[in-house]
Structures are given as structure tokens and as C-alpha cells.
Amino acid sequence: MKTAFQHGDTAFPSAFPPDTAFPTRTRGWALLPLLLAMACGGGHAMHADYGAAPSQARVSGGALPPPAESPSGSDTYAELEENGFVPASQDAMATFSLDVDTASYTRMRRALRDGALPDPDSVRPEEYINFFRWSEAPARTEGGAPFAVQLEQGPSPFGSERMRLLRVGVQAAAIPASQRPSANLVFLVDVSGSMGSANKIGLVKYALTTLVNTLREDDTVGIVVYAGQVGTLIEPTPVAQRGRLLEAIAGLAAGGSTNGEGGIRAAYDLAAQHHRPGGINRVIIATDGDFNVGLTGDPLIELIERYRDRDITLTALGFGGGNDRDMERLADHGNGSYAFIDNQSEALRVLQRDLGGTLQVVAQDVKVQVEMNPELVERFRLIGYENRVLAHEDFDNDGVDAAEIGSGQFTTAYLEYETRPGVAHDDPRVLASVRVRYQAPGGSESALLEFDAPVNAGAVSIEQTSPEFRFGAAVAEFAEILRGSSHSEGARFSSVLELAGGAGYEGGEDAAEFLTLVETAGRLWQQR
Q: What is the pTM of this model?
């Protein structure tokens, strides 16, 4: 049985301070000859295929063999430590920020289509789970809350008899495009030499064309390009003048080194000059993430945070491979999301179908704290979210940054737990208390939602759980196999297929594609 829990209850400067120095830029259409001279080729064909810290163990220390060499040969991933089981008698809480990124999933898809298993370090289970739409029904929010919270419990299909799963889902209300604030967007396009291929600059042009054709006419778009030099290709222009924007995008070509810092500074400066109070002010960076010139690492993150505090956010779009680690960090600290665009269909998904969630934030600094009942729970672990774990005391600290949720987005987390011997399915006691804290966009004080999950609200068998619960559990297990998780007992691709295929989840082409990807991974595993 499934139980749904729902809650019922400054002047902006025209430009940045003097210490924000910018490199010399070439403005307007005068930049085009420079780009053409730098180019290492002209237009390119585009892809057309559719589609208190917990105990820890090294993620890539499992049995997964080394992947084949990446097509790009330069993919860089953060080295995460996998969340281990925590005895509830020692620490009964899991505290974390939500996540809406999906790049890890589409990077896996690219690797499998290229005939290789993904790098274990590239696998972030939460991004696999959150790739899917878990509900098409509107979020039935109450009392002014911008989202609904759903809890569901059931047996862990890949664990022992007393192992169970708690699913925490947060679904944001969808804001119609006609009702959202107008947008001031600045595209920041990497035109360095590393971008000179069809699955990079060619796909960037398709993605940006898709976005321009989806925006409202009162939105504005500016384009900054960067390679060895930085230039403003076109000043913020109303989308009503779509022809000018599309012509500028069509002229993009790649060549030269990568001055990522200079490009980021220039894009934020342009967004600040055209800032819309109460509107959407966002920089959208399109790159393979190879920042090899200028400010990098923590100083670059600090720069992003300063702009974030000035109400300009960042969306990161990755193309072709490259520096996944830094792309994710930029988006996280820029109050935005990170997606990896591996084909035209993914561009349509992110920049057309899900555009509202990409642009319009409905809740910021969303944190979740799950407190298990140590009288009922022996041990537990949070599946994924390793780079989103927060100190327990940070849950109530409104000064600690956390993730944002966009219009219509549905984000999910699974916790696996082991009940104590003798806990009956009809026990009325509270198994876990779930608290969600969030701020309104632009706010400074948070609101708190609280829910209880009693033992007797959970399903007795896996067949009694919802299709979404079962399919999501299969996705989580698939990710754990690919990352070489110490909690995954062997490469049980057939079990993943059986659970996902029989779940009854109506996920359309995304669900069908997932089954194909599992089959492909199984074949590659056997051939290793």
C-alpha cells in the first residue's frame, strides 16, 4: 500500500564592483571573423538518435572491471565515497540536500552506446533515479507549499529478509510558461578547439536553437563565446527578434585554447547589466568542461557563489565528455542544474519538454532530514547523494546553501534500512520522521514540513508497492552494479530487468530505453 504525505500549511546593482575585472572583449558581430579564423572546421552533422558522517567505502573498489577508454580520453570525475550502513543506535539521522541533476545517467548512456561500461567514478545513483519522471499528475500542494512530499515503504528487492526501502519523493508544482517571470538569459558557449566535433559544437548549436525556439517573445537572450579570447557575440536581444539570435547561433565554430574564467566573468557581467528584478536571471554554459586557462578550482567556485548571491544563477550543459567534476560543482554552487547532452533527443528533453524546471525555481535551499526510530531500525544507509550529504546541524541553518527545485520537477531519494528482529508489519509505531526545509525563491528564512512514516503504512510484499517504487529500485540497483558498490552482490542485470520490466511503470520511451541499456550493460559485462 502507498501512503502520500502532503503539507498544508533588495535593490540590485547595475554592474559588479570594481574588483571584478574582465578581459578585453570583442563586441557584437565583429567577433564573427575572429571565430571563423579560429575554427578548425565548419558546420558539423549532429546526432539524430533518440532516445556526523556516515560510514563509507570507496565507490570504485567493487568488482566492476576498468571501462574501455573514453572516446574523449579526458573525462574527469570526482572521487566520491559511498554511503555505508549506519547503526541507528549511534546516529539515527540522514541529512542531505536534494538533487535534480541528470548528467550521470546520460553519460552512462553515451558510454554504453559507444560500446563501453561507464567509469565507476561517473556513476551517481541519485542522478540515475532522477532522470525519470515519476508522476505526470499535478502536485497537490497545500497551505502555500510549492511542492508535495510522498513517502512509500516496501521490501528491498535486492536485500535480505529484514531489509526494506523508504522512498522520499518531492514533486514541485508546475508553473505554466505564460505565468512564469520573464527571463534574462545569457548563453556562454565554449568555442575552444576541444569543442570542434559534431557531438560538441554541432550539438550545442542544435540545443541552443531548440531553447530559443521554446522561449517566450518577451524573454531576452545574449551570447558570450570564449576560447583563447572572450567576446560578446550578441547583446541581450528579445526573443521576438528570433532571426537575429538563430543567425548568431548558426555562426558558432570552434578553435583555440579555453579561457573558461574569462568567459564566465563576461557572461555574468552581461547578465548583470540587463538584470531583471523579480525575473529569471541565468547564465547557461555549454562546454565540455575543459577549463585549462584562467581561474580554476575553489577560486572559480567562489566567483560563482558571489554572482549567485547577486541573484544570477547558472545552468551547466555538458557536451561530448570532459570535466564532469567541475561542471557539477559549478552548477551546484551556482544554484542551478547540470545536464549532459548526448544527442538531439536529450536536448529536446532538457530545453523544450522540461524547460520550466530548467529555468523556473519554485523552492531554494531544499534540505531533507530523515530520522529513523532506533527501537525499530537496526541500521540504514542513504543510496547515493554522497556529494549532497550535510552535517545534521546544518539542516536548521538557513545560511547553508542547498539545492533548488524547479517547476514541475520530481526528485526522489531511497534509504535502505534493516528492521530489528521481531518488528511486525502491522506495528503502529513511527518508523521514521521526515523533515523537509526550504526557502521561497529570493527568501532568507526557511519553512519546515514534517511527516511521520509508521511501520504499518508500508507494503508487506514488493508486489504491493507502486510501479514507481519498483522501477526506481531497479534503477538504483543498476547504478550500484555499475559503480561497483560494496552493497551490490554481483552483476544481477537479469534481476534488474525482471523488476523494471514487470513494474508496470508508465515511463514511455525513457522506461523502454532503460531496459535496452540494462541489456547492453549485461552483454558488455559478459564480454569484459
A: 0.84
